[in-house]
Each structure stands twice: as C-alpha cells, then as structure tokens.
Design goal:
The complex is a heterodimer. Chain A is of the alpha+beta class. Chain A has helices at 5-25, 124-127, 130-136, 140-143, 157-169, 229-240, 242-269, and strands spanning 36-42, 46-49, 56-66, 76-83, 86-97, 100-113, 116-120, 145-147, 173-177, 180-183, 187-194, 201-211, 214-227. In chain A, helix 6 crosses helix 7. The longest helix of chain B is centred in the middle third of the chain and has 34 residues, at 110-143. The relative contact order of chain B is 0.23. The chains are: A alpha+beta, B mainly alpha. Chain B: The chain crosses the membrane at residues 12-39, 83-104, 110-130, 171-199, 205-229, 241-260, 272-293.
Chain lengths: 270, 307
C-alpha cells in the first residue's frame, strides 16, 4: 500500500524543496551573511483611526550595515513598499448591448491589497530585474495574486490594468520614484503618506536593498491600523450585535424625528 | 469638518452630509416621499460604497418620514387604517424584494436592473403626474374654483371582496388591491433601495383613488415602518448601516422635513404635484443618460464579492 506512494511523496518533497532552494540562493539565507544588510526602523507601528482621522504620515528610516568596503561597481538603491491588507476583488467590464451599457465580462482576483505604495530611490524598472521582481513581488502587477476560479474572458490583462488604473486614480496605489533619500550610500529615509480613507487591518512595510538589479537584503515591519474610541465601539457593535446596533440606529432616527417635530411646534407657538 | 465613518471606512465632509440630509428632508416634508430615490444616488456620488448608501439611506428615511408623519398626525391627514393595510402588504413585498436583490447580486446584474427599474418607474410616474397636474392646473385656470373630484367611481377595484371602510380617505373598497399595491411597492423599494414613496403616492392617487389631502401623511406613515424594517434587515444581514453617516444625514433631514411640511401647507396640491413630477423626470433623465451614453470608465471594481 505504501510503496506506490513513495515516488509520489518524493516528488512532492522535491516540489516543496525547490522554492526553498531558490531562496537559499537569495542573500537572506542565515549561513551566507549578505555583504550589505538593512538595519531599519519605522516611526509608527500603530496607526489609530479616530473620528477626525485625516490620513497619516509614516517615516521609514534605516542604514546599510557592511562588513566590507562599499562596492564600486553598481549604485545602491532602496525600495520601500507599504501594503494594506489584501482582499478579493471583482473587476467587471461594460459593453453595449441593445443600446444599453451592460456588465458583460468579469475577472475575479483572489487577493489584491487595498492600498499599495512603492517609494524608491530611482524608477523601479531601472533598478530591479523582472526575475527579482517575480521572486519578491514588488511591482504593482505582481503584488496582486492569482485569479480566483476559472477565467470567463479570453484576455484578463485589460481587467488587471483597469484595476490598477482605477486604484491609481483614486490614490490607493502609488509609485513615488525618488521618494526614498539615500545619503552617503548608507543612510536612507522614506516618508510615506497614508490617505484618510484607510481600512482597518494589518499593513506591512517592506524594504529592499538593491544593487545591479539584484535584491541584496530585505526587511519587513508590520504596521497595525485600527479604529479606536467611538469608531471602534460602533464598528464592534455593528459586527457582533447587529440586532442591537440596528435597533439603536432606529431609536436615534425616531428620537431625532420626534425631537425636530416637537422643537418646531414649540417654535411656531412662540 | 472632515469625519471618518466607522462602517463605510471613508472620510467625508460632515457639512456636505448635513446639507444633503436637509435637501432630502425638504423633499420629504413637501411631497411625502421618503427621499430615498434622491439620497441613495447622491451618496454614491460622494463616494459612499453602494451597499452602505442603500442601507443607511433607509435609516435616514425613517427619521425624516417619522418627523413628517408627526406633523401630518397633528393636521389629521393620516389614514391609519389604510396605512396599516398597505404596510402589511409592504413587509411581505420587501422580504421578497431582498431575496430578489441577493439573487441579482450573484448574477452581477444588480446595477443594471436597479437602474432600469429607476428609469422605467420614474419615467412612467413622472410623465403621468406631469400630464395630469398640467391638465388640472389648466382646468382650474379656465373654470375658476376647483371642481370636486369624482371619487365614487365604481371600477374593478370596488367589485372585489374583503371590503374595508377607510373613513379618513372616504373610501369603501376591497383590501386586496390595497395589499397588492403595498406589496408591489415593497418589492420595488427593496430592489431599488428606497422607501418607495414616489411610487406609493401616485399609486394611492390613481389606483386607489385616495384624496390628495391624506395621501402624503398616509404614505409617510407607511414609509416610516417599511424603511425601519429594511434598515433592521440590512443591519442584521449585511452590517451595512453606518450610524455615524445616518446621524449626520438625519440632523439635516429632520430640519428639512419640518420646513418642507410648512411650505407644503402654503402651496396648492396641483403645484406640488407638478414640482414633484419635474423632479422625478429630472432624476429619470439623468439615469437614462447613464445607461445609454458611453461611460467614461468601462471597468468597475467591487471588493470582497466572491461567489
């Protein structure tokens, strides 16, 4: 019974081991210390959403730690990517049918971050090879993952492009070339502006150190975005006790309606 | 003043919302419509996600129509018995409508059906009312004082069983057409995310033959309960009621509704109806253009909707 399973298991193990092997070649393996390493910090690890929340600014800063002198060949570059929590997204396309514009095609994308900013020292295409981009999933098209379910359309590219375009127009996806300042090839700093329409969740900042198109080192720090105070209380109530929340909303509406009516009656009598 | 909405998760200007609420409240008091058919598209326009706009709009409608109904109760222009019978039909209709809505959402055609519903019903009703009130206006101009409307026409509605006396309306008709009108409006109201007043008011006048005087108060009475039910359904089934958004809209809305009711007593019924007809036709034209003109962006994105 077990014998036929062995080759199967072996291939499965190989399949698991292969990506790991690929990672071994990457500089972040523990045995081979990369020649240049990131030491970084973040100005705020928690962002609180209050009623008057109007966006926030986080500063991601750090230094490059080296055991050897600075290599003279290719210039050093830093990319900072801040991503919001991912969620499933459906993109629909309208076509004219019988004179009316109707949703016809749809593409479901398994996970796309609701917010994504890339800040870099120089334009991304100059400092990052497509292969390294594939491995680390840095650029906007690659940060979106897999289509969900079978594709109903022949060409999904216009759909993903539309998603990126729509999110760029509304400020949720941004690419800030030159927003990372690198001083003396050692100290770097990026100021990332988070918009006011933030959604609660686990955000993350990733820092990539690049030279000659290759990623030398990466650094990852979590950023927790959450509602506080009244915002938190209402949100929890709505999710955990929806009936109570609904009754409360109605009570407020009825009280306001009655209050206004009574106030106006009083006002007219005088 | 910018404010972060806890459920919608967007930042909006508080004064914009109060102003919107006020405008819609004014309509509510003036015409006896809940204003849902205005508030819902306006909320889309300022960037509130559609499901939240629909559910919170319903909550706002509760406040403005309750405020309006109190004013009408004082003036004794509410036919309570008619209101209860309409409501009974409405609750059944609304439940069916929510089921239909969920089915359409799965098919991905909910926007189209909602828009088509709006265009068809607003167009029909607006056109009918406009024509009727123009005729009425011309008649009063020609023959001076208004002739009393002949209300005791014995049509098909009067031959059905289960007759009830609606004293405030001066009607003695079968309860079946009243229940059917309530249910039909309930279905449409749930699909279109509105209270349904703009359908209810003409249905009461032209189908049930109720006098204009009690139509507005009775419609508001029915809308208050129907939209309270809708709000609760939305809050429980999809957590889409944003109470912060609702409060801002309500603050403007209740004041607007009172002003509207006062204004309504000073205007003649024909003038009121012609104004409402024009408003309905304007919204209809806007929505029809959206359907037939090439949109700026052919792609649309919805999140978290994976079936």
């Amino acid at each position: 019974m077990t014998r036929p399973l062995v080759p199967l298991l072996l291939t499965a193990l190989l399949a698991i081991a292969l990506p790991a092997r690929a990672q071994d070649a990457a500089p972040e393996s523990p045995e081979k210390e990369p020649p240049e390493k990131i030491v970084a910090g973040i100005s705020r690890e928690n962002i609180d959403i209050t009623t008057s929340f109007d966006g926030s600014e986080i500063i991601i800063y750090g230094a490059v730690k080296r055991q050897a002198p600075i290599p003279a060949d290719d210039p050093l570059d830093v990319v900072v990517a801040v991503a919001g929590p991912s969620e499933a997204v459906t993109v629909r396309h309208k076509e004219r049918k019988l004179g009316v514009w109707v949703n016809t095609g749809r593409v479901d994308i398994g996970a796309a971050p609701n917010f994504y900013v890339i800040a870099s020292t120089r334009p991304l295409h100059l400092i990052l090879t497509p292969q390294q981009d594939q491995v680390h999933r840095i650029s906007v098209p690659l940060v979106m993952r897999s289509f969900a379910g079978p594709l109903e359309v022949e060409d999904a590219v216009p759909y993903t492009e539309a998603l990126v375009r729509l999110r760029q127009n509304s400020g949720y996806y941004r690419q800030d070339n030159g927003a990372v300042r690198l001083v003396e090839n050692t100290l770097f700093r990026a100021d990332v502006r988070l918009p006011s329409n933030l959604i609660e969740g686990a955000y993350s900042a990733r820092i990539f150190l690049l030279r000659g198109g290759e990623v030398l080192d990466t650094f990852r720090a979590p950023i927790e975005v959450r509602k506080v105070g009244l915002e938190r209380w209402l949100y929890r109530l709505a999710l955990e006790y929806p009936f109570v929340y609904g009754i409360m909303s109605l009570a407020i509406a009825i009280a306001a309606g009655w209050g206004a009516s009574a106030a106006f009656r009083q006002f007219r009598r005088n | 003043m910018q404010i972060y909405l806890p459920i919608a998760e967007v930042v909006v200007n508080a004064f914009t919302l109060i102003g919107l609420g006020g405008l819609v409240g004014l309509m509510s008091g003036l015409f006896g419509v809940g204003g849902g058919f205005l508030i819902t598209p306006l909320l889309f326009f300022i960037g509130i996600p559609p499901p939240i706009a629909v559910a919170t709009g319903a909550n706002q409608v509760v406040a403005s129509s309750f405020s309006g109904v109190l004013a009408h109760v004082k003036r004794k222009t509410v036919d309570f018995r008619m209101g209860w019978v309409l409501l009974a039909g409405g609750l059944v209709g609304s439940s069916i409508g929510v089921l239909l809505f969920n089915m359409l959402q799965r098919l991905g055609q909910v926007d189209l059906v909602v828009q088509l519903c709006y265009v068809i019903f607003l167009g029909l009703i607006g056109g009918m009312m406009f024509q009727e009130s123009l005729r009425a206006l011309r008649r009063t101009r020609v023959s001076g004082p208004i002739k009393p409307m002949r209300r005791h026409q014995h049509g098909w509605v009067h031959k059905w069983p289960l007759k009830i006396k609606f004293r405030a309306s001066g009607l003695y008709i079968s309860s079946i057409p009243v229940l059917l009108v309530g249910a039909a409006v309930g279905v449409l109201a749930a699909i279109m995310g509105v209270g349904g007043g703009f359908i209810m008011v003409p249905a009461m006048i032209y189908l049930l033959g109720m006098p204009t005087k009690v139509v507005i108060g009775t419609s508001l009475f029915q809308i208050t309960f129907l939209s309270a039910y809708t709000t609760l359904m939305h809050a429980v089934s999809s957590n889409t009621v944003d109470v912060m958004l609702a409060v801002l809209l309500i603050v403007g809305g209740v004041v607007g509704a009172q002003i509207g009711t006062q204004l309504g007593t000073r205007l003649r019924a024909e003038q009121l109806r012609i104004l409402l007809a024009l408003l309905v036709l304007a919204v209809c034209a806007k929505l029809a253009l959206d359907l037939f003109l090439r949109p700026d962006e052919l792609y649309s994105v919805t999140t978290g909707l994976l079936q």
